[in-house]
Automatic annotation (TrEMBL):
One of its GO terms (biological process) is transmembrane transport. Gene3D superfamilies: MetI-like (1.10.3720.10). Pfam families: BPD_transp_1, BPD_transp_1_N. InterPro entries: BPD_transp_1_N, MetI-like, MetI-like_sf. It is a multi-pass membrane protein. This is Glutathione transport system permease protein gsiC. Keywords: Cell membrane, Membrane, Transmembrane, Transmembrane helix, Transport. It comes from the Bacteria. Belongs to the binding-protein-dependent transport system permease family. Residues 99-300 form the ABC transmembrane type-1 domain.
Amino acid sequence: MPRRYLLGRIAQAALVLWAAFTASFILLQLLPGDAVLIKFLNPELGLGPQEIADIRAAYGADQPVWQQYLHTLAQFLTGHFGYSLQAGVPVSQGLATSLPPTLRLAALGFSTAALLAIALAAAASLAPLAWLRNALQALPSVFVSVPVFWLGIMLIQVLSFRLGWIPVINPGPWEGLVLPTLTLAVPISAPLAQILLRNIDTVLAQPFVAVARAKGASRAWVLLHHVARNALLPTLTIAGVLFGELLAGAVVTEAVFGLNGLGTLTQQAVGNQDTAVLQAVVVVSAAAFVLINLAVDLLYPLLDPRLRHSVENRA
């Protein structure tokens, strides 16, 4: 892969991260209220104005906004996310506890969504009856319109309370991930299936498919050996974009199922106006989104010879 292409993609990723950091910093500064006062302006603590002023100075809240921005940016560049005002511990400590469960849930949700999308696209393409094919092709439109929180509640009602298949109270380490994974996977699988079905229809219209069918190849054989790879490649792009939506859905899903992950940490930070934690959550989520899309951008030319030749010619 040309070095110029690689450096260009890395520079774009760094620019997106900087934009996410700057936008989140500005928006958090515009929030009404004062986190220091919310935490320490309590009659039971007995702190006077001078003590509160000293606390503000210790957290750097008394500095001009531009100095706070530069100081926070320098900290993030060195891997230090500051201190949580409410917990009184480094933000990285809270992230180290909350991030692994969220990443595990996101990975399981994305893998399940990909399997659902492939299964749905294959079933729709191989359906022998036109009405069945049309019904299967319409399912992604239904899935994409389902709210995450509603789907999670319905899964709990049906699979846990009515059927008793999955316990809600004190589930096992993996049992507790089944319903949240399904809640994440169903909405995410919809756009993947839509793109995949559209790509399959496009590839099936190519002349080489007609030639293969004329030679006696079955539809299933053509789909597996000729259509699958050509249809899956464009889906990688939308898959990378959907990962950002997956992280957002994971936060909501954790709230529905009471999981102690990034969603719980974000909820607590919003309630307490803990801007250091909120800033770190935004940047970490943006970093995960950017890294996934960067990996897709770098992997795509390796899988598609046409794009690889185009990249080499531009370099």
